[in-house]
Structures are given as C-alpha cells and as structure tokens.
Amino acid sequence: xxxxxxxxxxxxxxxxxxxxxxxxxxxxxxxxxxxxxxxxxxxxxxxxxxxxxxxxxxxxxxxxxxxxxxxxxxxxxxxxxxxx
Length: 84
Hints:
- The chain crosses the membrane at residues 27-46, 53-72.
- Keywords: Membrane, Transmembrane, Transmembrane helix.
- The chain is mainly alpha-helical and 84 residues long.
- It has a domain at 24-74.
- Helix content is 54%, strand content 5%.
- The chain has three helices and two strands, in the order E-H-H-H-E.
- The protein has a two-stranded antiparallel ribbon.
- The radius of gyration is 16 Å and the shape is elongated.
- The two termini are 22 Å apart.
C-alpha cells in the first residue's frame, strides 16, 4: 500500500505557488511568520532604519518560502482543474 505524502501547503488552483495551509503545522508556520512581521511593524523599527526593516521582512519571507518549498506541494503553473 502506498502512503500519500501530506503537504502542509497545497498548490494554488490558479497561477504558481501555494495556497492556504492544509494542516496545523502549516498554520503554525503561517502564524509565526505573521507574528514576526507584525512585531516588526508594531516596534516601529521601520522609522529608525527602513533598510533594516526591509531586510528583516525579506529574511522572514525567504524562510517562509523555503518551508513552503520543502513541505508544500511541488510548485508549477496551474490554470484551473488539472486534466488527467
């Protein structure tokens, strides 16, 4: 019996990339990402050093993208329902 791999982030139906998380692990990753970005915004760090704010948000986004790449459905261009 073959066991199907459980993806944390399913592929979007239209376009390229991933959609909303499909399991609790994905939701935890998404919540941590949003908490980090919100904490940076509420700290008003962007007023003191806008470049470093962009750098930290970019780092957080790259980490999220890496997790989606590793734990998500393989990305490819999609346009609606797959024909098989």
